[in-house]
Amino acid sequence: MKLAQQTFLITGASAGIGRALAVALAQQGAHVIAWGRNAERLQELTASHPNIQVQVVDLTQVAQLEQTVATLLSHMTIDCLINNAGIQHAKQLLDADYGLPDIMAEVSTNLLAPIELTRLLLPHLLTRPQARVLMMSSGLALMPKAESAVYCATKAAIHSLSEGLQLQLQASQVTVTECILPLVDTAMTAGRGRGKIMPAQAAGEIVLALQQPARPMLYVGKSRLLPFLLRFAPYILRRILQVPPESQRLPQHS
């Protein structure tokens, strides 16, 4: 895939992996449409490279995506959709400061928006000679951890969605890849975990893979160990992910 001839739509591009992906793809000569919620950071991003065009889009407002996509497609073509945006609350369901608005934000951003964006763009992508959909996922889709149960559930749904779309589109020229990420050093993971990789490293591996024939699953960084651990040492993986730190034990209620 010659990236210089492609146009990429990336969600969640104002920071973290999305921002790093936008820069890395633009440096390869690709044209990038970068969506995010932070207007100031998006302006900084578009000023960093002439191939990057930005747009403020709030993915929690899923019902507005149809008009946004229609306007976008009225003046440009898209070759690859990267469903990257994500929200994770490191909370338990019984936490007093975690409620329906937080849950709705996670589910809308992590699951409903990727489904709707893919649905809206598919008719257009099917007209392109070579098109891709990249679903950003996590090892938590395959084995959830003790905290962030809603986030883990959305990623499990993305895993299933990716496989289902691969079956639906197997006779077409549109490919769907689920990208399994390790712990990446972003604002979302601040203060949590060790051995993180930088967003630029994750983006570099993804961009390299985008230049190769598409595959159903792409494992980035340490996530390459997941298939082995899931098959031969699931107990070890379960202990790593599912034992909550003391601060995340169930709260005590009087």
Q: What would you say about this model in short?
A:
Strand 6 (174-181), helix 6 and strand 7 form a beta-alpha-beta unit. It is built from 8 helices and 7 strands, in the order βαβαβαβαβαβαβαα.
Number of helices: 8
Widest sheet, order of strands? 3-2-1-4-5-6-7
Helix content: 40-55%
Taking Cα atoms only, what radius of gyration do you get, to the nearest Å? 18 Å
Q: Pairing-aware structural class of the strands and helices?
A: alpha/beta
Characterize the largest beta sheet: strand count, sense, and whether it forms a barrel: 7 strands, parallel
Low-confidence stretches: 245-254
Shape designation: globular
Q: Classify the beta-strand content into a percent band.
A: 5-15%
Distance between the termini: 60 Å
**Whole-number average pLDDT?**
88
SSE order: EHEHEHEHEHEHEHH
The beta-strand count equals 7
